[in-house]
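User: Teach me something about this protein's shape.
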Amino acid sequence: MLIDEEGHRQKCNGSEQGATPNQMALRAAIEGLSRTEQGCEAKIYSNNQYLVLGVEDSRQRKANRELWNELDELLSRRSVHAEYIAKHKWLSKAQMLAKDATGS
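Assistant: First, the predicted structure itself:
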């Protein structure tokens, strides 16, 4: 889900047959960032350590070169920080972020 500074939400979902969880996490980040303006600040929250570590440190990338190249193009034109959220904390964190974004 994308939440802008005014609290507007845009739900995004999808799947790719045969894709791994890491590939789907990368695709989600690509799709989300592609809906943001160049030069903006963005945060990626994910329960996928491969994505978060790879965004913060390119030495952590072991595979999926095409997806990383696509994501790198988007990252190079935005100020992006990625944060890992453990799976058991995911729902509560997502609810908190949505509440913060809407100011309610």
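Now, about its shape. The first strand starts at residue 2 and ends at 3. The chain has one domain: 2-97. If you'd like, I can walk through any region in more detail.
User: That's plenty for now, thanks!
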